[in-house]
Amino acid sequence: MILITGGLGFIGTHTARALLDQGVACVLTRHRSLQVPGFLQDELGKQLFIEPLELTDPLSFREIGKRHNIKGIVHLAMAAPGSSDAINTVRAHTLSLLQVLQSAVDWGVSRVSIASAIGVYSGISETPPREDMPLPMTADNPFTTLKKCSELISTFIAGRAGLEVVHLRISGIWGPLHEANSNLVIAPKLVHAAVRGGSPDFTGPHASPVLDAYDMCYVKDAARAIALLQTAPKLNHSTYNVGCGRPVTNREFVSAIHRHLPDARIDCPAGLPLNLALDITRIREDTGFVPEYDVERGVAEYIGWLRAGNDR
Fold first, then answer.
1. Cα(303)–Cα(175) distance, integer angstroms
2. Residue 205: pLDDT over 70
3. Is the sign of the CA dihedral 184, 188, 191, 197 positive or negative?
4. pLDDT for res 270
5. Among 58, 129, 68, which residue's Cα sits nearest to residue 96?
6. pLDDT digit string (tens) for 82-92?
7. CA 82 → CA 7, 13, 88, 268, 275, distances in Å?
8. For range 115-129, the mean pLDDT
9. Which helix (H) or strand (E) holds 2?
10. Mean pLDDT on 244-250
11. By 3-state DSSP, what share of the chain in percent is helix, strand and coil, each rounded to 5?
12. Label partner for 78 (CA 20 to 30 A): which of 39, 61, 102, 112?
């Protein structure tokens, strides 16, 4: 049975579905969200279980360990993601990581997969980024700082404790259940506006820059990649890029949406062109992963999802 922290989140729910499709039972942790998407409902109480979890509380982890035979962990949750208090943010993030690793030791799990991000490659000029490239010790935002720290801490502990830890350097992810409020991954904002007959808003006092031409992977592909890495009989590395392997432009999303919704009032926003895609050779060689969703297929499915009455 696999424990997924942040299991009721955007990537977590899809990862659960991918694991269930492999015949692997899952425990999903929840913090605020209680909503279980329809594509998981039939598995509740059978192969899928929901548990409350306070990430920084060891007793909370122990209770889960008493109720379930956990043999693997996918750590996707991030403690205090919206906090403006730098010290408490770092404290919560580090404590939650340590609790995950301690629980892995206590439970004797076979593998812990920990979410990192494409942002750790910031400052590297060579493209496409490969997992064996040395990372700069600097970071340009709090999120990237915490992800780099997680990789260092978990690698150190894994070596001392005899754990197998896998770092997942995840690209921009889009698709059903994404919160359509980010300019960093604008596909959800574009699709939501098109389906609702409105125009997307990329402005606001806290709006981030609009990015363009970088690795944006459909969530079902990303989830399947994570599931394959968590369950592979043998992995040859401890770090893997998770993405579609090519830069996707905002124009591609707009064009695909207009093919399905010709009257959509959306246009391609000017964005910072990154021309960045992850090298996914490692994951392909070790798990056989190949993305199944191009922009056209993903947009069509996403539109259908929202038209079916889903609000995210």
1. 9
2. no
3. negative
4. 81
5. 58
6. 567 899 999 99
7. 18, 21, 11, 29, 28
8. 93
9. strand 2-5
10. 96
11. 40, 15, 40
12. 39
User: Which pTM was predicted?
Assistant: 0.97
- CA angle at residue 310 from 306 to 312, to 5 degrees? 80
DSSP code string of 161-230: HT--EEEEEE-EEESTT--TT-SSS-HHHHHHHHHHT------STTPPPPEEEEEEEEHHHHHHHHHHHH
209 pLDDT band (50/70/90 cuts)?
Answer: confident
Token look-up 């929901």 returns 50
Write the Ramachandran bin of 88: left for phi over 0, alpha for psi from -120 to 50, otherwise beta: alpha
Taking the alpha carbons of 67, 68, 70, 76 in that order, is the dihedral positive or negative? negative
What strand order describes the sheet that includes 239-242?
A: 48-52, 26-30, 2-5, 72-75, 111-117, 165-170, 239-242
Q: Kindly indicate the confidence band of residue 33, based on its pLDDT and cuts at 50, 70 and 90.
A: low
Phi, psi angles (nearest 5°) of residue 230: -70, -30
| 74-83: average pLDDT | 80
User: Which structure tokens are listed for 106?
Assistant: 């206590």
Q: How far is CA 175 from the centre of its chain?
A: 11
Crossing angle for the helix pair 187-196 and 250-260, to the nearest 10 degrees? 20
